[in-house]
């Protein structure tokens, strides 16, 4: 028997009533979210069109796009962009690739797998600031644990100043961030791997597919969704990395701006230099950048989905 | 009349809800902006006839004496209640205060300040200017400079701080050096540092790991070589032969003589440097007065007999030093400025200053306490400070400190790591300084 296309009037009325009630319940939360997110974002956007430098007085003249055009010719911003790109490429692509590899290992049957999965969560449980302090203590040039360990193994004679050189400091920052981000990405990938039916693996084995073929033709296409999510989320986190830099470098983004990414530069400009207009222009630029990167991943994976489809389907 | 009827005509339930929503939204946004209607006067603050009520104080964590005894004494004597006394890490306070001031927040009536912040927050119009009549007469000038900018006084000092040299007598003796005689020239200092340096033990260490630290370390060698950061009109003058020579000598400590602990480039504050010296593996440091208490305290490997103190050896002058005095200022948006000023004045009194000298090891802000024999008996390093007053001691706190320190530190670290020459580094930094002076200096 076919269902009628239109519901009876009393059902329709009840649905509308439910909808209104639902909206009423959600309204306060939506209002607060809009207030806490929308207002600061809108205000930052508004400030970015003004010469708003607290040290220059209380007047904030409208300057149009000048803060944005200044960014184009600012070598400090260029440097921060280059460092952000370096940091993001390694933490996003490297982090996700490493997460897939670890998830593949943890998806196999082996003794102690449960303990390994629990241990994987430990870095995730460590608060970001504690994470930064921990790595600072490990890499400290005078009394760091790593130097002590390397010395006791006879690998180095003198202490290595890990955080005194700009490029070394950046690589240590990447290492510390990777340690922090891997548990979440691994869990995400592990959940995706467990969603692939065993029959597919068995069928592939019967057809004589090797490990590489299985990974390339079965696993990868079936974790495209979570993979896209991981890449998007990690891209956002990498572009707005802050806490580890702050703790690791004592709030300076040093040495010699070696760990100053665009988000950290926006913070320094806004809060240390009190140049709110220019700092806001940086913050808006970061927001646009995040949107562009997100759009890039969505378009890329959307195209892949259209061209290949899903083997599970 | 017509408009009134039109209003009536359109005021249905939906319109009423819209108006209500807009009003609520507007009120919420106004609340978020944090602006208050506090009247802010441009008249310099004079001592009130009978201040009362209560105040809140935001301080760094340098001093314990205030919470231990000063607040109680202040309350007993003035009847003003200190509702809140909050301490924070020095490196975190700037942003906290800038955010508070920017929102015209009056949560704290009194805030800690030093030369850089007095200039920066003073120029921003966030600190209350004090009338000269409100300033006690016997204050030491460098301490008063730390709370002043552009000819205006924005606060009163709480202690004076000048860097002097501290040395580890044990390491001097082990290296066969007379431990009671301080190196008096830069060459003597380098010679001594070389003799001490061996197997993870360094002759010298400093704290260049953050922008402010890098600036201080450069300023010190610049002054030791007879140079100046700015002329009287704030034209930058540090990229001269004297400046380049001074920086070259600093770089040589690390790269040529190899007597500087390489960790100096990642040590971010004087407190960590103080702890490092107290661990006993560093021959010489140039540090603030607290170093004596830290080096002779219970956690140190040293004691009063094994810590030497003297003038910092000069390059082309006998000695010079940098100032790090701190003070308190009144929040421009405070609702109880008279009581806040009463706190500032109370801290400069003899009784409080004696405690700061005797219990905490900082130098006093008043001449009478500096000359008091009891002060010298309690704090032997005060003798060095008295000697150092004959030589140049500067800080050059300016509103552009933050940007300049950042730019200078990049150049200095590159020079220290041998990636650029001292001349190139200083030329680039001077160019930045010129741009900043042009931007910020109000003629």
For the biggest sheet of chain A, the summary is: none
Mean model confidence by pLDDT of chain B: 90
What's the assembly state of these chains?
A: heterodimer
* Rg of chain A: 25 Å
Chain-wise SSE layout:
The complex is a heterodimer of chains A (313) and B (443).
Chain A: H1 9-47, H2 66-72, H3 75-106, H4 113-120, H5 122-125, H6 128-139, H7 145-152, H8 166-194, H9 198-206, H10 211-222, H11 224-239, H12 243-248, H13 262-272, H14 276-308
Chain B: H1 2-10, H2 13-33, E1 54-60, H3 65-78, E2 81-88, H4 90-102, E3 110-114, H5 115-123, H6 141-145, E4 148-149, E5 152-153, E6 155-159, E7 164-168, H7 169-174, H8 186-196, E8 202-204, H9 211-224, H10 241-255, H11 270-278, E9 282-287, H12 290-295, E10 307-310, E11 320-322, E12 326-330, H13 337-347, H14 350-360, H15 367-370, H16 373-378, H17 382-388, E13 392-394, H18 401-416, H19 422-440
Parallel strand pairs in B: 1-2, 1-3, 8-9, 11-13
Antiparallel strand pairs in B: 3-12, 4-5, 6-12, 7-9, 7-10
List keywords for this structure.
heterodimer, A: 313 residues, mainly alpha, 14 helices, globular, B: 443 residues, alpha/beta, 5-stranded mixed sheet, 4-stranded mixed sheet, 47% helix, 13% strand
Compact overview of the structure:
By secondary structure, chain A is an all-alpha fold. Chain A has helices at residues 9-47, 66-72, 75-106, 113-120, 122-125, 128-139, 145-152, 166-194, 198-206, 211-222, 224-239, 243-248, 262-272, 276-308.
């Amino acid at each position: 028997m076919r269902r009628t296309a239109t519901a009876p009037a009393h059902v329709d009325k009840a649905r509308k009533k439910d909808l209104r009630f639902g909206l009423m319940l959600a309204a306060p939360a939506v209002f607060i979210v809009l207030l806490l997110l929308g207002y600061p974002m809108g205000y930052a956007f508004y400030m970015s069109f003004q010469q708003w430098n607290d040290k220059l007085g209380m007047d904030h003249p409208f300057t149009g796009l000048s803060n944005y055009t200044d960014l184009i010719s600012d070598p400090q911003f260029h440097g921060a962009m280059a460092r952000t790109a370096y940091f993001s490429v390694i933490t996003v692509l490297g982090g996700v690739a490493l997460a897939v590899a670890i998830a593949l290992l943890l998806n196999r049957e082996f003794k102690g797998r449960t303990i390994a999965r629990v241990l994987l969560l430990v870095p995730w449980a460590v608060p970001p600031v504690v994470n930064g302090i921990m790595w600072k203590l490990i890499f400290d040039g005078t009394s760091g644990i790593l130097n002590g360990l390397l010395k006791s193994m006879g690998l180095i004679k003198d202490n290595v100043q890990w955080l005194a050189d700009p490029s070394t400091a950046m690589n240590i920052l990447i290492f510390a961030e990777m340690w922090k981000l891997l548990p979440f990405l691994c869990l995400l990938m592990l959940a995706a791997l467990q969603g692939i039916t065993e029959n597919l693996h068995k069928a592939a084995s019967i057809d004589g597919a090797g490990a590489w073929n299985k990974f390339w033709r079965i696993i990868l296409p079936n974790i495209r969704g979570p993979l896209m999510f991981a890449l998007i989320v990690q891209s956002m986190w990498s572009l707005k990395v802050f806490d580890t830099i702050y703790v690791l470098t004592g709030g300076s983004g040093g040495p010699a701006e070696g760990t100053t990414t665009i988000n950290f530069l926006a913070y320094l400009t806004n809060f240390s230099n009190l140049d709110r207009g220019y700092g806001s222009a940086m913050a808006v630029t970061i927001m646009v950048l995040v949107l562009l990167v997100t759009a890039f991943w969505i378009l890329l994976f959307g195209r892949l989905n259209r061209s290949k489809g899903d083997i599970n389907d | 009349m017509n408009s009134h009827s039109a209003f009536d005509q359109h005021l249905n339930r939906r319109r009423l809800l819209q108006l209500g929503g807009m009003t609520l939204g507007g009120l919420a946004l106004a609340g978020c902006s944090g602006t208050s209607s506090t009247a802010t006067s441009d008249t310099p603050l004079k001592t009130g006839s009978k201040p009362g009520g209560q105040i809140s104080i935001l301080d760094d964590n340098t001093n314990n004496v205030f919470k231990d005894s000063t607040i109680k004494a202040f309350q007993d004597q003035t009847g003003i209640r200190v509702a809140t006394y909050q301490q924070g890490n020095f490196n975190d306070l700037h942003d906290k205060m800038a955010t508070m001031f920017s929102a015209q927040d009056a949560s704290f009536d009194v805030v800690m300040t030093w030369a850089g912040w007095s200039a920066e927050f003073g120029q921003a119009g966030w600190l209350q200017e004090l009338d000269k009549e409100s300033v006690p007469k016997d204050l030491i000038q460098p301490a008063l400079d730390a709370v002043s900018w552009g000819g205006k006084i924005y606060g009163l000092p709480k202690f004076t701080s000048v860097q002097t040299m501290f040395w580890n007598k044990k390491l001097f003796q082990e290296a066969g050096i007379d431990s009671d005689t301080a190196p008096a020239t830069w060459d003597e200092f380098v010679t001594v540092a070389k003799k001490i340096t061996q197997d993870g033990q360094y002759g010298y260490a400093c704290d260049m790991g953050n922008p402010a630290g890098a600036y201080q370390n450069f300023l010190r060698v610049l002054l030791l070589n007879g140079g100046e950061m700015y002329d009287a009109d704030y034209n930058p003058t540090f990229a001269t032969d004297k400046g380049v020579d001074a920086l070259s000598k600093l770089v040589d400590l690390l790269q040529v003589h190899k007597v500087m602990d390489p960790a100096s480039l990642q040590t971010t504050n004087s407190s960590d440097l103080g702890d490092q010296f107290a661990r006993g593996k560093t021959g010489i440091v140039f540090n603030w007065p607290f170093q004596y208490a830290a080096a002779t305290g219970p956690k140190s490997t040293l004691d009063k007999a094994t810590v030497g103190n003297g003038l910092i050896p000069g390059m082309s002058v006998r000695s010079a030093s940098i100032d790090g005095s701190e003070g308190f200022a009144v929040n421009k948006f405070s609702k109880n400025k008279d009581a806040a000023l009463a706190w500032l004045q109370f801290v400069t009194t003899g009784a409080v200053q004696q405690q700061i000298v005797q219990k905490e090891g900082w130098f006093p802000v008043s001449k009478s306490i500096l000359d008091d024999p009891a002060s010298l008996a309690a704090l032997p390093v005060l003798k060095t400070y008295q000697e150092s007053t004959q030589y140049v001691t500067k800080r050059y706190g300016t509103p552009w400190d933050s940007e300049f320190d950042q730019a200078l530190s990049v150049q200095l670290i590159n020079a220290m790591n041998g990636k650029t020459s001292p001349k190139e580094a200083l030329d680039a930094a001077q160019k930045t300084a010129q741009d900043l002076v042009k931007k910020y200096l109000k003629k």
